[in-house]
Amino acid sequence: MKRFGFGRFRFRRGMILVLAMFMAVLAGCGGNSGADANTQATNTSSNNVTSSDQGAASTAAEPVKITWWHSMSGTGEKAINKIVTDFNASHPDIQVEAVYQGKYDESLNKLKASLGSDSGPDLIQVYEIGSKFMIDSKMITPVQKFIDEDSFDLSSLEPNITRYYTIGGQLNAMPFNTSNPILYYNKDAFKAAGLDPENPPKTFEEYETAAKALSKNGKPGAAIAIYGWFMEQLFANQNAEYVNGGNGRDQAATESLLASEAGVKTLEWWKKMVDEKAVANLGRDTDDTDSAFAAGQVAMTLDSTASLRKIVDAVGGKFEVGTGFLPKPADAKEGGVVVGGASLYIMNNKPEAEQKAAWEFIKYVASPEVQAEWSVSTGYFPITKAAYDQQVLKDNMAKYPQFQTAVDQLHASSASNATSGAVMGVFPEARQIVEGAIEEALNGKKEPKKALEDAAAQITDKLKQYNATVK
User: For this UniProt entry, which residues form the secretion signal (predicted)?
Assistant: First the structure.
């Protein structure tokens, strides 16, 4: 990387260190935009048309091209390709090229590698925990600019989704694929254990009771993956902030609150169930807990709403799958879930015409018809309220009635800084640190409070380093 300017903005030397640090961490986790397919218009008029006239006609007919970097593979990529194909067919003046850039970490690394050149995208999908970095990088044009210029009706979107990406009084990115965590349970196993299959546990205490009732012959009745996202969600469900500074939303976070009462209560509850062999510790991969659930080896688990169809299909009718809200302590009065997933950012180093074209595409993606099809194809939430009025989504909700739980939980979440989600520039690193702390506690290497205190100190130190590099 020879120079560090991006558009009309420039990074300080400190920001370069952040990029290096960020890339190193993401490499532990985890382009060219493709050939130019644009075709010049052909002049078939009479021979007395001049070459300059031909050039003008060709230019006038040439569509604005935009490149969209995304991180959806499998069914998600198929759904994206259909969206792009349909948009291009209906918007001959704009042509979008969707390019898969690997997982979120890989895509963000490639974006950073493109700094100072024109090789980057016009539009990029970035996961929610990359939000603070994207804003601080000065690489984006907030979508609020186009919303204001276009008088776009934000009230048409789900407020509990847009709240996450509204930072500093403006919507910085347009939500795209959105999910939240829910409880999955085996209704048949509930009946066999004498539990009410229509009344899943709603609190920590009820979850523990159910897990013990579902356990038999020394085999745990439930499993929870060691996933930092779950800890973040269990904080929000207690209306507890994850970092200071109003969860990083009122001012830049300088301290992790991981070892606060909410964190200690959560990890002690989790460890107690593991120690009592009521909950299995199957590691960090949610696919492992999902597989155990689908095979009937455990009767309860937690996972994203985006996994609902995959889980139901994997069960294949062997038992009836029930869903419930994410549990919280009985004494937690308010709270709710934080949306996960990713959003779409418009890059500011591209010509105005391309940025406006990207906005036109974003509006198309946010339309009720497209959002309904996207939700049905992928299992993610529609970001647009009117998508639920589309027949294709109504039919899908009838086929997968468990999804209504996710919708109800989203709408039931109270509006606060806690449920809007934490904001910090070192979130990918923080999530890994948290997962390490959970592992230490569950494996008996440290007491829950000590594990969280040590992790909080590490995250706080990372925050200080990061903040020192940002203007």
Answer: 1-27
Last residue of some domain: 412, 439, 455? Answer: 412
What tokens appear for 30 in the block? Answer: 């985890």
Query: Given the DSSP bridges, would you call strands 181-186 and 300-304 parallel, antiparallel or unpaired?
Result: antiparallel
Place of tokens 């299992």: 379
Residue 163's closest CA among 382, 428, 416? 416
Which of 372, 387, 412 is the last residue before a domain boundary? Answer: 412
Taking alpha carbons only, the member of 185, 207, 208 closest to residue 198 is 185
Under 8 Å between Cβ of 267 and 224:
no
Residue in 161, 337, 339, 166 with CA at minimum distance from that of residue 239: 337
Structure tokens given for 302? 């937690």
pTM for the model stands at 0.85
pLDDT tens digits for 362-398? Answer: 999 999 999 999 999 999 999 999 999 999 999 999 9
Calculate the CA 329 to chain-centre distance. Answer: 25
3-class secondary structure, 32: coil
Domain housing 223: 181-336+424-469
